[in-house]
Amino acid sequence: MSDIPFGFGPSDRDPDDERRRREMEGRGEGAGGPFGFSGFPGMPGGMPGAEGFDVSQLGQMLTQLGQMLSQAQSSGGGPVNYDLAAQLARQRLAATTSSLTEAQRSAVADAVKLAELWLDPATDFPTGATETKAWSASEWVDASLPTWKRLCDPVAQRVSTAWVEAMPEEIRAAAGPMIAMLGQMGGLAFGSQLGGGLAQLAAEVLTSTDIGVPVGPDRVAALLPENIEKFTKDLDRPSSEVMIFLAAREAAHHRLFAHVPWLKERLLGAVEQYAQGIRVDVSRIEELARGIDPSNPAAIEEAMRSGMFEPETTPEQKAALARLETVLALIEGWVDAVVADAVGERLPGAEALREALRRRRATGGPAEQAFATVVGLELRPRRLRAAAELWRLLGEQRGIAGRDALWAHPDLVPTPDDLDDPAAFVGRAEMGDPIAELEKLAGQKAPEEESPGAKKPDSATDADSEESSGSEGGKDKDDGDD
Fold it and tell me: What is the spatial distance between Cα 359 and Cα 126, in angstroms, rounded to a whole number?
């Protein structure tokens, strides 16, 4: 867990800011106010009284502050102020992005069309995307916001309620309206942090599925030409080749998510399960608080940076993170294996591009940044490589249809233990036809669902046959669980 989720402390402090803060502390000055707060998001300058403060900006600051508080009240009372997040992200991106040209949009459309043709013989899943888009960074922010709401809300909501639940009853009663005000300010704080994270991601992501799950509208394949151009500069490959390779990955992701309906909900469910396990160690906060001088803002900031407000990591959270990591690794591994089959003989630099994306992921690409911000999760490259090897071996042994059939039900996909030894999973003797396994399970449940007036077997032979069938179904179910 590399980052503290949702506003418990900044994870990317600028070294120059840290140096200036230490110099101010050495002179006995604060760091700009309690918790190191030196201004409101999006406002010019610093707080009144700071050195070099321009008094002419005071009216503008107060106006913006009023707008922010009004916005917090009208944002629906959610745990994150997404309007503020989107506004901040667009402001940060405005100076570095531009409108896309018609040539860029045409290049994306042509690359996706070609990639779809190449993918057809490489997977049993038909085309998943019904529309192709070329997005600027700002367009990615707007299109992805609904998905970020689903990813962020469970954790932010649980963090907010955990503090209220941890308060003694008498304090909660005395706080009254103050709790609601703190909730609004918390929504602003979470929105500010999310806005910064979205701006950083939007400047780096290459496709709508770059974090492992489609963040845009369903069945819309989207690439970001400007970001792809920046990515290509560090590679010794033609830009058209890089575009087609990334288009193949985007199209493969959409095929998988479009035809495996339980997959996206399983990912989001793991995030929600993680959120439900958030607990706050009130005794630790009380212990640390005894040593804090309330009149010393620097001491308060230091306590914040020490992680005193970081939630505990519970066993339930660890289990949810493990499930999330496994599903993401399986998705990434399947896409890697399928795209390798589809483009391997057609693009001379396909293997080099695969390795470049793996290095990008290993050194902290957009997927790691996104999930570290949301849930503190780091994807492990070892798991991604193991998953890709597992799907490759399955394709060799069982064929394309047999490999892809494992996605038919969540109980059929490999487990974390299977990723530890892909060859053992592929070579298991009890692995039969996945569809037949599901049919047997369905047949076993059918008698239980019959109405009281259902027809009984006409003969002892039929009864014996039915009992034998049920017994075999039970054995297959046990084998599948193992």
Answer: 30
Give the integer Cα–Cα distance in Å for 151 and 144: 11
Q: Are 172 and 164 in contact (CB under 8 A)?
A: yes
48 CB contacts (<8 Å, ≥6 apart)?
Answer: 58
Indicate the SS3 state at residue 361.
helix
Distance CA 184, CA 187 (A): 5
Q: In this structure, is the dihedral angle defined by the CA atoms of residues 165, 170, 176 and 178, taken in order, positive or negative?
A: negative
Rounded to whole angstroms, the Cα distance separating 121 from 90 reads 40
What 3-state DSSP class applies to 47? Answer: coil
**C-beta separation of 73 from 82 below 8 A:** no
Angle value at C-alpha 326, between 324 and 332, nearest 5 degrees: 100
Task: Identify any residues that bridge with 131 across adjacent strands, giving them in sequence order.
Answer: 220
Helix, strand, coil shares of the chain, percent, nearest 5, are 65, 0, 30
Nearest-10 crossing angle of helices 350-362, 315-343? 160
> Phi and psi (nearest 5°) for 470?
-65, -35
Higher pLDDT, 451 or 235: 235
Greater confidence, 104 or 479? 104
317 vs 265, 384, 385, CA distance in Å?
18, 21, 24
Helix (H, G, I), strand (E, B), or coil: what is residue 187?
A: helix
Give which of 7, 36, 26, 50 is closest to 297, Cα–Cα. 36
CA angle 289, 293, 296 (to 5 degrees): 130
What pLDDT digit, counting tens, does each position of 261-320 carry? 999 888 888 877 777 776 666 565 555 555 555 556 566 556 555 554 455 677 877 888
Rounded to whole angstroms, how far apart are CA atoms 82 and 92? 15
